[in-house]
Design brief:
5% strand; 12 helices; single chain; 2 strands; mainly alpha
C-alpha cells in the first residue's frame, strides 16, 4: 500500500510530451533541466504502471540530460557536445548556474546508482564539485556535507566516516530552519542511516533502517501539504541505497512500491 492512487499517476504521466522535450533539450542547453525532471517523474509513474523497459529508458534520458546540464555549467559558455536518446549535438553551453545545484547532483547520483551506471557516475565525478556547491540555488549545510560524502564514495568506492558524521551532525533540528526541519528528519536522516549500515556491513541493521526509512518517506510525502508532489511517488534516495547495498551483498531486494524495481 502507498499514498499514491492510479488517478494521480495518470495525471502526472507525461510520456507523450517526451519527444518535444528531447527536441527542445537538443536545440538548447537551457531546456536540459526540464527534460531531466520530467524524465525522472515519468520513471516514477512507470514504476506504478509496471513498465520496466520504459522506466529504464526514462532514467537513462534523465541521466543524459542531467549530466549534460552539469557539464554545461562547468563549461562556462564554451561549446558542449552531448547525446540524448541516441542523438548527438554540439551547442553553446548556456546553462544557468542556478540549475546546477546540489539537489540536481544528488538526483543524478541516485538515478545512476539505481541502474548501476558506472560510466554516468564517472562523468558525474568528473564535474568539479565546486560547480554545484557554488550554485546560487543555496544548499543547506547538511546537504553540502552529504554531497561531499557521496562524491567521495562515487569516486573511490570507499565510505568516508568523517564526512558522514559531519552530514549527520548538521541535521540537528536545533540548527535548521523550520521549513527544512521535517524534510531532514523524515527524508535525509533515514537515508544517512542506510549508508551507515552499508558501511558497517550490517544486513540486519540495513533491513531495519530500510523499513524505518520507507515508513518515514510515506509519512512525510502523504501529508496534506506534500501529497500532490510527484517527488514522493518513489524514493530515489532509498532506491539508490538499496541498489548499492544489494550490489555489495549487505541486503537483498527490498519490496516496496517506493523503491525502484529493476
Amino acid at each position: 500500500m502507498t499514498h499514491i492512487d492510479a488517478q494521480r499517476i495518470q495525471r502526472y504521466y507525461k510520456i507523450k510530451q517526451r519527444g518535444a522535450l528531447i527536441d527542445n533539450a537538443l536545440a538548447s542547453t537551457r531546456s536540459l533541466g526540464m527534460l531531466m525532471s520530467d524524465a525522472l517523474r515519468d520513471a516514477a509513474c512507470e514504476q506504478y504502471l509496471v513498465l520496466r523497459d520504459a522506466k529504464v529508458a526514462s532514467i537513462n534520458v534523465a541521466l543524459e540530460a542531467g549530466l549534460a546540464l552539469l557539464r554545461g555549467a562547468a563549461a562556462g559558455g564554451a561549446a558542449l557536445e552531448y547525446t540524448i536518446a541516441g542523438r548527438t549535438v554540439t551547442r553553446m553551453a548556456e546553462v544557468s548556474e542556478s540549475q546546477a545545484h546540489v539537489g540536481r547532483w544528488l538526483d543524478i547520483f541516485e538515478a545512476a546508482s539505481v541502474v548501476r551506471d558506472r560510466a554516468a557516475l564517472a562523468t558525474l565525478c568528473a564535474v568539479p564539485l565546486e560547480v554545484v556547491l557554488g550554485s546560487s540555488t543555496a544548499a543547506e549545510p547538511f546537504q553540502q556535507h552529504w554531497v561531499r560524502f557521496l562524491h567521495t564514495f562515487a569516486a573511490t568506492g570507499r565510505f568516508a566516516p568523517d564526512l558522514l558524521m559531519r552530514a549527520m551532525k548538521a541535521t540537528d533540528p536545533n540548527g535548521l530552519l523550520e521549513d527544512v526541519r521535517d524534510y531532514a528528519l523524515y527524508v535525509v536522516v533515514p537515508t544517512m542511516h542506510l549508508y551507515y549500515q552499508i558501511a558497517v556491513k550490517s544486513s540486519g541493521g540495513f533491513e531495519q533502517a530500510a523499513g524505518e526509512a520507507l515508513e518515514k518517506h510515506e509519512r512525510y510525502w502523504s501529508r496534506a501539504d506534500q501529497a500532490h508532489v510527484a517527488t514522493g511517488f518513489i524514493s530515489w534516495p532509498i532506491s539508490a541505497a538499496v541498489s548499492i547495498a544489494t550490489e555489495r551483498g549487505v541486503a537483498e531486494r527490498v519490496a516496496s512500491p517506493y523503491v525502484i524495481d529493476l
